[in-house]
Amino acid sequence: MKMLSANEASWVYNGLDCCVTSEVYNNLREQLDGEEPRVQETHKFAKAKLAPYMEMSLRGLHVDLAAKERALQELKKTRDDLDRKFQRIMVEVFGGPINWNSPTQVKQLLYTQMALKPVRKRNSKGFYMPTVNEEALEYLKIYIHARPIISFILTLRGIAKTISFLNTKLDTDNRIRTSFNLAGTVTGRLSSAESEFGSGTNLQNVDRSIRYIFTPDPGMYMVNIDLEQADARNVGAIMWNMFYDKHGPEFAGSYLNACESSDLHTAVCRMAWPNLQWPDDESEWKKYCSSVILYGQDSYRQIAKKLGHGTNYYGTPPTMARHTHTPVQIIKGFQRNYFNAFPVIPLWQNETISLIQDQGVLYNLFGRRRHFFGRGNDAKTHRDAIAYSPQSSTGEQIDRGLFNVWRSFDIKLVQFLVQVHDSILFQIPYAEAEELIPLILQKMQVVLELKGGRSFTIPLEVKAGWNWGDYDDDNPDKNPLGLKSWTGKEERERPSPRRRLKDYL
What are the backbone angles phi and psi of residue 496, rounded to the nearest 5°? Predict the structure, then answer.
């Protein structure tokens, strides 16, 4: 190549680029042609959905600059107030200030001065070294005397992370964009990162407290469609198919029937905390456990949701205790009640483990295949395998619903903004919302036929408004224009396009 001119070297380089790519494609094409139909269908759909996700990446989300600045100032004030209190404790107790954002100083504080047993993690060189990452700090809360200090550090780091997100570079049109990766995860779910132009960031993990800064374009109306209890219902559908022939519909469908007949997370909450002051009226149970805060911003129902998912996915009481800030004994009692109510769950878990040990392959409800290369007797491999089919099926359901809508409506009517694993945010002309939303819901519905001819679909929850934040029924003045449950008609006054969002907050 050094003997060639600059032009000749470029010609050779480009030629190799084309030829090698073509050679790889031809080999993969031959391999794919020999696969079973459901694997070919997975590949075909993965290519088809590139179009709507590319469109979504190019459009991005509009940012209200005044609302963004307000959010920044509020967060900085909260951070500074907490930091002053934290540093006073550090000076009075430990003799000097501590940089809570410095891993070295936090290690010195926790592992040397407070003499906590270090949590270790394998580094890039393969050595296990002390760490103070988020997971380690959550674990260290088992030390009661360290819990307040660790809570300070975690809260301050969380605020710093949100501030960093708000400082993300925007494009010149005041929009934030992300680049969706359709092959970014082993489950088939999307991942996202900064845009191809070096701006933007991951938009699938935006803190709910600052989502109100994202607003629709003039004349448009934001709509969010969410799959309700998707992972749990998919667990139920998988168990139905797995055990229908051998154990019959009553046993195979016990968990799925519970998902479809009541609010599962409320039922789980009652299993975990039967001694709460539950209202006599059963219709009030969901509201009650949703309104009582257990830890941070999480209500009893939110924690119960995590307990249910964690137990489904082979979580042990000690691990789940760290993630949900719930005593181990409560989780042990809950899991006894849970498995007694749904004995099909441990049977499904054991059957899944046997499948990967014998075959190393699993399929989700849509026929998407995954090979498992981990050790068959390793607990992590077991957890990955158990979580794969439900989570992968949820990703497939939201993708197929989105694709059906994209294919059915004009780009001027339905414009996709962001996908968040089991929900999709888009904008439509406000004047056509009442007519469009029911039609969109019809196209979003994905129906599968399970064994025995049972029809299975995930219910859809719809919210709409003039920013991405949530509307709070108990505190309507907090974000009056946020996403509110759709009842068939918008009853709030439409904001004037000549006024900024900050005028309504």
Answer: -70, 135
Cα(20)–Cα(464) distance, integer angstroms: 48
Cβ count within 10 A of residue 341: 15
Instruction: Write the pLDDT tens digit of every residue in 446-496.
Output: 999 999 999 999 999 999 999 999 998 888 999 999 999 999 999 998 887
User: pLDDT by residue (tens digit) across 284-302?
Assistant: 898 888 888 887 778 888 8
Residues 6 or more apart from 364 whose CB is under 8 A from it? Answer: 188, 370, 388, 389, 390, 392, 393, 396
Residues 6 or more apart in contact with residue 60 via CB below 8 angstroms: 171, 175, 176, 177, 178, 195, 200, 417
User: If DSSP codes are grouped into helix, strand and coil, which group holds residue 341?
Assistant: helix
Give the angle subtended at the CA of 331 by the CAs of 309 and 137, to the nearest 5°.
80
- pLDDT level of residue 61 (50, 70, 90 thresholds): very high
Tokens of 8: 């000749």
Q: Provide the whole-model pTM.
A: 0.87
Q: Residues 94, 113: contact at Cβ < 8 Å?
A: yes
Measure the CA angle with vertex 304, ends 300 and 310; round to 5°: 145
Distances (CA, A) of 486 to 3, 115, 359, 407, 482: 68, 53, 46, 24, 12
Q: 301 with 265: CB under 8 angstroms?
A: yes
Token representation of residue 155 = 């809260």
Q: Is the dihedral of CA 403, 405, 409, 413 positive or negative?
A: negative
Nearest 10 degrees: CA dihedral of 234, 237, 239, 244? 180
Amino acid at 137: L
Side chain identity at 326, as an amino acid letter? T
